[in-house]
Write a structure and sequence with these properties.
Strand content: 5-15%
Helix content: 55-70%
Distance between the termini: 35 Å
Number of helices: 19
Order of helices and strands: EHHEHHEHEEHHHHHHHHHEHEHHHH
Mean pLDDT: 87
Structural class: alpha/beta
Strand order of the largest sheet: 3-2-1-6-7
Oligomer: single chain
Shape: globular
Low-confidence stretches: none
Largest sheet: 5 strands, parallel
Length: 388
Amino acid sequence: MLLLDKSAMQSFSERESRFLSKHFSVVIPPILITEILADLSKAKTRKLPPAIEVTLLSRKLPPMDSHINVHYRQICIGSLLGLQEPPMDGRPVVGGGVPLRTRDGKTGLFFEEPEEWKLIRNWQQGTFTAQDKAYAQRWRRMTDALDLDRQKRLVRKLLKRGPDLKSVGEVSTRAARILENPKPDRQYRFITGFMDQLGVPTEMRLRVLGRWQAAGSPPFKVFAPYAAYCNRVNMIFSLSVVSGLVSTRPTNRIDLEYLYYLPFCMVFCSGDGFHKTLCPPLLRDDPGWMGQSFIGRDELKKDLEYLVAEWDGLSKEEKKVRSDEYGSYPPPREELVTHRLWRKHLKPWKPGSGNLKLDADQQKRLMEEMQPMLDAIKEYEQRESARA
């Protein structure tokens, strides 16, 4: 599971982006889609008009083996209300699952194509609506209006002292010390302060606080783990700004949003110095494959360039042999960061780990097993079509 930011995706060629799906399952956060569309409102400073740049950039989103993650705000609200706490173990949070039951009693989930992909396909064809253009302009105005210098002054005033933190490691330690204060009044302030930042409506705030009090006023990270994680991200960001470790450039606040999705990937790839600075203390420090990795954009691009060229140099028969033997596994070469990531986070390759080979009888039995669910999906689609 690979989380990409815009700086990484921009650097890949369209072919490299397609090849990315061969070895990675890409997690697409909503902020990435927003940033792509926002370029529509850029002034023409390059050789290409903004609309063409957005079209070319949107074509780099890998359509296969990718997952559009649910917006972090929606996940936070579910966490605060106790409706659903997401696993934070490298699996993306996707929405829209429809429970189905086959005629023989088996159950499953059917995921329709997300609405976002329908929009992206329009952009890939150079089709933009008036709503797209208006949204891009609003986003640009909102970004330009961000004032991190003001936030820096406010946080410094709250701390009642000047910045004395020399590294993000020290920032992380200070943030932990602040957030782990067990006093209920402090935890109350953390929860309400985070809801202020999130813009939670009054009625919903009362439900959240009622649930917190009914649970015995537990620590924020116990009460709503994912929301508490996002609050920790904000705390580390604020302290880093105050300490001068992160600049007050408005776009840093936009880039911060990618870090809210870190729990839903195994690997995060970015070419942004801001991410390289803030990411380390936020990565899961679990041993082995349950941990997380940060990889620089240029390192992954170098890998993709090699993998594409190496694949293109194979004959048709050699490509078939490679696919049969390795499937999605990259070539086992230590110089490839893709190989090292696979070795760390997934099962190591061994003979027989490639593409599954089925004979005619096995294929027939597989289709017979799948057919009841395929029929259930067809019936669901027919019902939805009739409603429409």
